[in-house]
Amino acid sequence: MDWKKAFSSGKWPLSQEEAAFCDGLSITEMAELQQFLDVVHIRECLIRPFSQWKEYPVVEPRSLLPSFEPDVYEYHNLPGFSLLVFDRPLLPFNEIFQYDIIHPVTDLLDIAQGPCCPLENAILGANMQTMLARLPRALHDQFRAEFQRLDTTALELYPPMLPYILCMDRAHVLAKNAYGHFQMAGVFASLPSDIDGELKRFGMRIGKFQMGDNDLYERNRLFVMQFLMELYGFPIVSERRTSAALFARRLHKMGERFLIRVLGQSDRVITTIWNDGAAARYPHVEKIALIRVDEDQREVLDALRESKAFVDEKNRVALLRVRYRQHSYDPDNVRQDRALSVLSQQIIHPLTGENIDGLNIIRDSTNLILRLNDIVRGEYTGRIVFKRTEVVENTDTDEKRLKFLYAWLTKHQRRIIGYSEEFFANTGKILDNYFDNLDHSDSLDELADLKQEVRNRYRYIQQARKIRCLEEIRTRNYRGERLNYDRMLSEALTLLQELKFEVSIYFDELVATTIHHIEAMLNDRYLRRHYVEKAEQDLTRAGQEVRRKYGRLVVLLDDFKAIRKTHQASGEAAA
């Protein structure tokens, strides 16, 4: 597809040659501005480089699934930017960030007398100098020739100015003018981020830090940082995206209506964080990227061909928009590291800009099983980042397969824990067979530590899956059924007996969560009042059976507490 034809049939058909509008453009609503920015940014920053560079690194769909992984490579020849939008006029002295101001000529309308105002040329000249001061010197003459007599704050000039803005450092700013219309308001904006203060306040609020406890801080710092960043759609990455996330957090706390958009040169993803005034705990988050649809997703491919929604049909490349939902931290949830989950996914039509719903591209459980099969067989081709430091390509050796498997289990841990019994059974069958083969192989002795790491990751998921089931049993809604108290206790006893032997591979946070759920069941007020606190002779035979099972659950609680106490004591002795 020719990038100049992108969105040519949509609401804002850009000039194919200059990417500009012939007529003036007036936008007063944030939602409409976001649609306009989608068109401009996708065309200039995604489709154009994809069309012009044969080796363009298309984003893997799985990388848009939380939790996000940092990209090791930075593609300096690809565009990157930061954008800040306010749904109000800016008051330079009162703002909480620094930027270079550019003034619209419309500011003179109230004081201008006659058809020609002598201040107009002065303002245009000052704006030109502000822009040139932040552009590379090699672009000065070209920019001056193109925009010398134009009001560079006008929104209709934003598309042709964007290639120059992409060459500037820091963020550019859009805001409303005095008449309520969006315009360019500044360049070279610094988004302040109190990362130390935000991190420590957030960590203390969720109970991961305590005042003055250095050991606790050191143990949990990375977890807190990752959770906090993921709430705003990023992994622990570059300063550009870190400052965008933390500044968005600050603006949201202040109740501002804003939009922050970031395109990284490493992730090739347009990430947007915005607050539309809704009374929500966190701002909205979405990502837009060029992805390659997997060849096994036949239904998706057929639908995209029918809609002519491919950017490149031969290579199965399409535009994907993913929106996310944030989750509050819950220490008693076995998936406590889940800060973000997928809310919706849409394909963006490259000609009309229409959103195509109903296609499951990144949450396909069948696709996950196929990828896992490819990994253990050594047939998967791709690239992952192992433990944030090492780039591993393909699965042609045993070591690479183990590293890919570790990354796969880490990436999809929450989904494996939460998906259906059938999915978990299929996953378990593949992994159990793989580990059995490893155990009978003598050639992998030098990889013993790596094998153990991967196995422990799998054991963690197995135990966490059982604890998630225990949580459902505690709420008496298990596998789509409403349980009575007798059935609740029976299911809990069966599951906990199995889990007690599995915790020989010990994970403290899982045992702590198990103890919490057992105590919650034992402290159920209805259960205690009708089955435990009643006299024996007042109970029916069924009631006596419930009390007996209650007693067995108390014994199991003591067993798990003893296991935890033993491991904590051995850990302190080792320290």
General description of the model:
This protein has 575 residues and is of the alpha+beta class. The chain folds into three domains: 1-97 and 191-363, no CATH class; 367-443, no CATH class; 468-575. Helix content is 46%, strand content 14%. The protein contains 17 helices and 14 strands. The chain has helices spanning 30-52, 118-134, 140-147, 158-165, 195-205, 214-230, 239-253, 298-307, 365-377, 398-411, 413-418, 421-439, 448-474, 485-502, 508-522, 525-532, 541-574; strands spanning 81-86, 98-101, 171-176, 182-190, 258-263, 270-275, 284-292, 317-326, 340-348, 355-356, 383-386, 390-393, 477-478, 481-482. The strands form three sheets. Strands 2-4-3-1-5-6-7-8-9-10 form a ten-stranded mixed β-sheet, with helices on both faces. The chain has a two-stranded antiparallel ribbon with strand order 11-12. α9 (365-377) runs antiparallel to α10 (398-411), α14 packs parallel to α17 and α15 runs antiparallel to α17 (541-574). The chain is globular. The mean pLDDT is 88.
Which parts are unreliable, with pLDDT below 50 for 5 consecutive residues or more? Answer: none
Gross geometry: globular
**SS content category:** alpha+beta
Please give the count of helices.
Answer: 17
Q: How many domains, in number, for the residues?
A: 3
Radius of gyration: 28 Å
Question: Approximately how much beta-strand content do the residues carry?
Answer: 5-15%
C-alpha termini separation? 62 Å
Question: Which strand order spans the largest sheet, edge to edge or round the barrel?
Answer: 2-4-3-1-5-6-7-8-9-10
Count of DSSP strands = 14
Mean pLDDT: 88
Question: What characterizes the major β-sheet?
Answer: 10 strands, mixed
Range of helix content: 40-55%
